[in-house]
Amino acid sequence: MTHMHVAGSIHADTVTPAPKWLSTPVDVNALNPKLWSQTVVRNAEGALEVGGLDVREIVERVDTPAYVMDEVDFRARARAFRDAFSGWDVYYAAKSFLCTISARWIAEEGLCMDVCSGNELTVALAGGMPAARIGFHGNNKTVAELTQAVEAGVGRIIIDSMTEIERLQAICAEREVTARVMVRVTAGVEAHTHEYIATAHEDQKFGLSITGGQALEGLLACHAAPNIELRGVHSHIGSQIFETAGFEVAIRRTLELHRAFLDATGEHLPELDLGGGFGIAYIAADQPRSAEHLAGAMQALVHRECRGLELDQVPHLSIEPGRAISGTPGMALYRVGTVKMVTLAEGVQRCYVSVDGGMSDNIRPALYGAEYSATLASRASDAGPLLCRVVGKHCESGDILVRDEFLPADIAPGDLIAVPAAGAYSRSMASNYNHALKPPVVGVRDGELRTLIRRETMQDLLALDAGWTPDA
Ligand SMILES: *Cc1c(COP(=O)(O)O)cnc(C)c1O
Question: Where do the annotations place pyridoxal 5'-phosphate binding (predicted)?
Answer without folding.
Answer: 277, 320-323, 425
